[in-house]
Design goal:
460 residues; alpha/beta; Aspartate Aminotransferase, domain 1; Aspartate Aminotransferase, domain 2; 2 domains; 8-stranded mixed sheet; 18 helices; 13% strand; globular; binds pyridoxal-5'-phosphate; binds 2-acetamido-2-deoxy-beta-D-glucopyranose; transferase; aminotransferase; PyrdxlP-dep_Trfase_major; Aminotransferase_I/II_large
Length: 460
Amino acid sequence: MSSFLLLRSRLLTTATPAKAIVPPLTRGFRHSAISMGLSSKLKPAARVSGQRQDVWSFINEAAAASPKQPIVNMGQGFFGYNPPAFLLDAAKEALDRVDCNQYCHTKGRPRLKKAIADAYSPFWGREINPETEVTVTTGANEGMLSAFMAFIEDGDEVIVFEPFFDQYISNIEMPGGKVVYVPMHPPATGATKTSSAADWTIDFDELEKAITPKTKMIVLNTPHNPVGKVYSREELQKIGDLCVKHEIIILSDEVYDRLFYVPFTRIGSLSPEIANLTLTVGSAGKNFYATGWRVGWLIGPEHLIKYVSAAHTRICFVTPSPLQEACAVGFEKAEAAGFWDETIKEMKGKIDRLNAVWDELGMPYSEPEGGYFVLVNMAKVKLPEDYPFPPHVINRPRDFKLAWFLIQEVGVAAIPPTEFYTAENAHLAENYIRFAVCKEDSVLEEAKNRLRGLKKYIQE
Ligand SMILES: Cc1ncc(COP(=O)(O)O)c(C=O)c1O
Ligand SMILES: *[C@@H]1O[C@H](CO)[C@@H](O)[C@H](O)[C@H]1NC(C)=O
C-alpha cells in the first residue's frame, strides 16, 4: 500500500477519536455536489461550491489521518473552557422567562442595546444612543454580512487587508462586491528573529493606490487575527483620513477588543468625521468565551446603523433572545467583577506560556499585541525531502505542508495562514503557522511537550 493509501485508511479507521477532539467544523463547504454529477437544475450556486478544499476541512481531515491521537487542537479560535459563571447563570435564568423565549425586536433586546451603549460610551467619549446607534446581530460574522448587504451593490469595491478573516470574502461577494486586497507586510527579519506584531505594516502608498471611485468600504481588523497586531493611533488616523477624503465606509472588526496588551485605539473614536463613517463590530462570543452563542453587534452613526438593522431583519430576523439577555447581564456585571482585567491577564499568560516553547526551540514568532493567536515562523523547520504528503497537500504553499507535518508527526493542529491571502501574496506568509492559545493551560502544556519533538527537524 502506498503511504498515501495508508494515510487514507487511517483516516477511515481513526475518525472517531479525532472527532472527539476536533469538533465538526461548520465553516466552508465541500464540493461533493459537483463531483456527484448532479443535474444542472440541482447544481449549487457558485457562492457555495468552491473547488478548493477549505482550511477547516483540510485540518479536520489531517487530524483524522494522524497516528498521534488524540490531536491537540490549536487550530480554530474557540475556547477550551466555559464562559464566566455570571454569564452562565444569567443564561439559565433567562430560559425561565416567558418574554426571553419569544421574538424580540430585530435590532436587539432593549436591555442588551443599553448595556452595550453603557459599556462603550466611555471609549467614544460621548453617550452612545442605544436606540439609534447600536444594533444586535447573530455573531459578528452575521453583523458584517448585514453591513455589506446594507451598502454593497454589484461592482462596488471593498478594500481588505491580507491576511484577512476568511468570512469577509464571501460576505462581500454575496451582495456582488469586489474585494480589493492590500497586503500587510511581515517584518523583514521574521524568519530569524522574534519581533512584535506591530512590525507587520501597511504601505500607505499601496493603500491609496487601491482606492478607486468605486471604493465603497474598507475592512479593518484590530486587534488582528491572525497577526496579533493592534493598529497604532497614527496608523488609524492615516486610514481614517483617507476614508474621510474619499468618503469610504469603515467596517472596523474589533471582536478582540477586550484582549489588548498594548494601548488600544478605536478608529471610531478619533474624530466626528471618522466616526460618521465607521461601523464598529463586536462579539459577545469573543468577549465572554461563548463563540457558540452567536451574539454580536454593530455600533455606528444612525444613518449607517439603520440600514445594517434593515439587512439583519431580512437575514436573521432576530438573534436568540435568551442569550442576548445573558450577554446584557454580562456587560452589566463584567466591569465590577474585574472580568475585563482578568481576561487580559489570563490570555496574556497563555500567550507567554506557549511562546516559552518557541524561545526554547529558537523558533521566531510575532509577539502578539492583542487577541489570542500567535504566528510562528517555521522557516527553520526542514521538511524531509521524501515526506509522503498526499497530493492535495503537495500543491499547496509550504505552510499547508508544515501544518500537515505538525499534525502527523507531533500531533498538534494549527492553521496555515496563506489561506487568508490571495495566491499572489501567499508567499508572504508561507513560513508561518497560526496557533490559537484560548485553551486550558494543561492543553497548552501538552502542546509544548509535543512541539519539542520538532527539535530534530530544526536547521539553523
Ligand atoms: C477577526 C474576526 N472577526 C470576526 C469573527 C467572528 O466572530 P463571531 O463568532 O462573533 O461571528 C472572528 C472569529 O474567529 C474573527 O477572528
Ligand atoms: C455625518 O453624516 C451625515 C450624513 O451624511 C451628515 O449629514 C453630517 O453632516 C455628517 N457629520 C459629520 C460630523 O461629518
